[in-house]
Amino acid sequence: MTTCVLCAAPDASPVQLSPGDDVAVLCATCAVALTGDITPGPRWRCLGDAVWAPEPATQIAAFRLLKALPGETWAVDLLETVYLDPEVQARADAGQGEALAEVTHRDSNGALLAAGDTVVLIKDLPVKGSSMVAKRGTAVRGIRLVHDNADQIEGKVNGQTIVILCQFVKKSA
């Protein structure tokens, strides 16, 4: 019985990771998720181990699934720490960049924002779901871009990760 290289589920079968010649043994759920039909949840925590596997095909499959979970803070944090061999990284990114390149994030002044930038809040912002207020003038370092929404970024304010609308920030020099 063959098991999935990502989640160890039984009844897995070889799946071609296009473009390229990489083949990973995946269960039906993981194979469908690689096509873009992925539902966030705790099921994907297995990717934390799989992305460090010695086999390049396993690394590629895990990396692509982690990239498909931009709303999961743990997945974004894990992607920031993952190091893949440059050749493996290129194969993992192949075909993935076109969808992400369409969305651009701009601050209140129209300046282009990039992941890792530092921004400053231009308005007091009440944080939904908590009593915290993010004060005007607060610097938010190391922002993350919400890849499917050009109006939103993520950042840590007072140790809490929050979603911030781009119209309420200006890029720090």
TrEMBL record:
InterPro entries: YjdM_C
Gene3D superfamilies membership: SH3 Domains (2.30.30.40)
PANTHER family hit by this protein: PROTEIN YJDM (PTHR30305:SF3), PROTEIN YJDM-RELATED (PTHR30305)
Coiled-coil segments on the chain, per record: none
Domain Protein YjdM C-terminal residues, every copy: 105-171
Domain of life: Bacteria
Protein name listed in UniProt: PhnA protein
Matching SUPFAM superfamilies: Prokaryotic SH3-related domain (SSF82057)
Source species of the chain: Pseudotabrizicola alkalilacus
